[in-house]
Amino acid sequence: MPPYRYLRHLGLVMPSMLPQELIRAKRDGAALTPAQVEAFVRGLVDGGFSDAQVGAMAMAIVLRGMDTAETAALTAAMTHSGDVLDWRDAGLSASHGPIVDKHSTGGVGDKVSLMLAPLLAACGAVVPMISGRGLGHTGGTLDKLEALPGYAVTPPHAQLVGALRSAGCAIVGASERVAPADRRLYGIRDVTATVESLPLITASILSKKLAAGLQALVMDVKVGNGAFMATPQSARELALSLERVGRAAGLPTVALLTGMDEVLGHHAGNALEVAEALAFLTGRWPAGWGGDGAGLGDGLGGRAGSAGSSTREPRLLEVTLALAAQALHLSGLSATLPQARERAHRALDDGSAAEHFARMVAALGGPADVLRDARLPRAPVCRAVPAPHAGWVAAMDTRALGLAVVELGGGRRRPGDTVDPRVGLAGVRHVGQRVEAGEPLAWVHAADEAAAAHAAGAVAAAFSLAQVASVSTPAVIGPVDQAA
User: Fold this and answer.
1) Strand, coil or helix: 195
2) 137 part of a folded domain
3) Domain boundary residue among 39, 62, 79?
4) Catalytic residue at 157?
5) Which among 115, 156, 338, 418 is most buried, taking Cβ atoms within 10 Å?
6) Do 235 and 336 reside in the same domain of the chain?
């Protein structure tokens, strides 16, 4: 061991808090002390770390990792970098229901939050869901909701509380006063290839959730070629990290592993996913979003949807109900998981979840009757991606499909980019489905013909067809302690 590091190991040298020295320490594989972690987080908030230095530290963490103590310290420092909410101050007592939330590690076509928050509210929970924007190749819940004209993703506190009182749920972004350190780090990670890091993901998710004053948290940890954690081992490690750090901070936390080897649902793209969420909740596609040969409707070439399987893609339904059951059980609203699942399914089928969604949207400034007229924007160009030959969909490069949406303008290439809510992929085929030569594998919704042509090539290359039927991976792999 070099003399300096040996003396530091003995506690005889105080570590420097200069940004470049903290970066150097992590780059060289040192475990940062709580004081050093606090200095980094303070620099995120007060500008003591430049964007370049933040990116360098993030990359050092990606390459060198953080142990459990460092991760816990980073989570705690980011949690307390701003306000920590107490809903009792807003008059939301236990009589209103337990404060519950869910978070996904990110996928392609993952619009589960849009249905799950109102579904849990319909079952008696209060859901102040702090969500994020698109990250890397994955979509962001806030970007999706902003496709609804007028929807306020960062409402004043009084409006947020009003939405929780009237709808039981509010899907919003963290205010500038909640976990501001994560706000800055999140944006830099998105454009510096530093997303795939267990400690950074753990701290980012849990800092916002701990600051939101929750009483129960359910985590959806994605695994597969469209997830940040592509292997079962890495996904399980992240799930365990989230459970361990969350529980250590006093927040009951359960993590489910769910598959992301294919697009979740029929559509990927902001307005497209909101339309699918509305169809999922109501059993019918929004007016003007079915039967027009644009890959809308039930996702099978443009047929108009109707109540049932055409509006609730089976994998999307399974993930939504599994997460709902875990949340209701963990929060004490249902005694057993089967009872919780049955209760959630009933709230979905009787329309109460849809009613809570509509109340939430109206309370947060969106369309007053979103179930009747969502006023979602439509892309001017739509192009089918034909199958090159007949066969069964054997696999897809889900990450490549997510990147195709980003290239269309549905995500960001650099901080501050404007997202085009109209663009994306519709009617995406699933593993195990049969297609004939020339039938659409998906439909590209684009801002212009050139973008559509470019995306169509990328989408076609992402699909693999076989002459025998394939079996898709499970939508829900299971709780982390059962998914070894």
Assistant:
1) coil
2) yes
3) 79
4) no
5) 115
6) yes
Known active-site residue 356: no
The whole-angstrom separation of Cα 453 and Cα 306 is: 31
Q: Which of 75, 141, 197, 207 is catalytic?
A: 141
Kindly give, in sequence order, each residue whose CB lies less than 8 Å from that of residue 143, ignoring residues fewer than 6 positions away: 133, 134, 270, 410, 411, 419, 421
Residue type, 122: A
Q: Which two tokens stand for residue 223?
A: 């695994």
Q: Is 144 a catalytic residue?
A: no
On whether both 105 and 238 belong to a single domain, the answer is yes
Residues 316, 167: one domain? Answer: yes
The reply to whether 110 and 213 lie within a common domain is yes
Domain finish residue from 57, 79, 101: 79
Task: Give yes or no: 102 in active site.
Answer: yes
DSSP structure string for 256-291: EEEE-SS-SSS-BSHHHHHHHHHHHHHSSPPTTSSS
Query: Is residue 311 assigned to a domain?
Result: yes
Number of domains in the chain: 3
Residues 242 and 335 in one domain: yes
Beta strands in 357-405 (DSSP E): 381-386, 391-396
User: Would residue 320 show up in a list of annotated catalytic residues for this protein?
Assistant: no
153/360 Cα distance (integer angstroms):
11
The one catalytic residue in 133, 189, 312, 429 is: 189
Angle among Cα 212, 216, 220 to the nearest 5 degrees reads 95
Residues 6+ apart with CB under 8 A from 94: none
Question: Quick check: is 101 catalytic?
Answer: yes
CATH classification at residue 218: 3.40.1030.10
DSSP state of 408: I
pLDDT in tens, the chain (484 residues): 444 344 344 444 455 789 999 999 999 999 999 999 999 999 999 999 999 999 999 999 999 999 989 999 999 999 999 988 877 666 665 557 899 999 998 899 999 999 999 999 999 999 999 888 887 788 899 999 999 999 999 999 899 999 999 999 999 987 788 889 998 998 899 789 998 888 998 999 899 889 888 999 999 999 999 998 888 998 999 899 999 999 988 899 999 999 999 999 999 999 999 999 999 999 988 877 754 557 776 443 333 333 334 689 999 999 999 999 999 999 999 999 999 999 999 999 999 999 999 999 999 999 999 999 999 999 999 999 999 999 999 999 999 999 999 999 999 887 778 999 999 999 999 999 999 999 999 999 999 999 999 999 999 999 999 999 988 889 999 887 654 4
Residues 328 and 457 in one domain: no
Residue 135 is given by DSSP the state B
Q: Quote the domain boundaries for residue 38.
A: 3-79
Q: Rounded to two decimals, what is the model's pTM?
A: 0.84
